[in-house]
Amino acid sequence: MGRSEDGPWVKEEPTGTQAFIKESPLGDPRTLSSDPLNSRYGPSMTAETAIEDQTFNSGKQLPRGRHGLSREKVTESQRARIIQSMIDAVAERGYQETRVVDVVERAGVSRATFYDLFDDLEDCFLASYDYVSARLFETASAGFNREADAPWAERIRTGMGAFLEVLAGWPEGARFAIVEVLAAGPKALVRRDAALRQFGEFVEAGRNQSSNELPGITSVAIVGGINELLYSEVLHGATTRLPGRLPDIVFWITQPFLGPEGAAAERERARAT
Question: The domain at 16-119 falls in which architecture?
């Protein structure tokens, strides 16, 4: 088990209702009536229903009263809520300032539940990064492959357009995956490198558009340059304006393969969309 940013914690401590009772600074919920905890969970709360870390759907608390959810569904929902809370906490506070308590409070779970699902804060960050990068790649891939028979430059325009729209609508995910990943240690940087190379596959598909023998690092260099642009925009709070960068990004991607004139034509097509 990894370190605990909130002080010592023994993973073998009871979980579920008993762990909640043990950890609550307000005492045993069975003895509460007009306590603030009741205001949060409702007056019908009992030891059986005051399990703050169970949900009936991703990102949602359990409905009041008993429920018939399986342990697998509960665990799945807990994990999803922790990951979303990790993304939000890191985007707001920065990775270096984020603690386990910041994540569990947002997710509405106990520390015991957190350590049941993740070894430590870094493990949770890596799982969250995998989630964000997969969502971004799948979005770009869906756009790129929407019209498989379309010209490569058109597919680039569609895929990158979808990718930028997701980033613009999800500033927390953008900051988490593009900015804060650089502060999260060597393992996170390995994940980042793998993600960037995966995006390079879209660029690499343009090789058959060129009669020139381009360097093998062309796609890596292009993706790296685009990532630096995204980093600067997100860092300076311009995430929502990223879709406006599409024409220039299309130009940068296509220029080595189509030449200046062809890339300029593709930029104009992107401006017209």
Answer: Orthogonal Bundle (1.10)
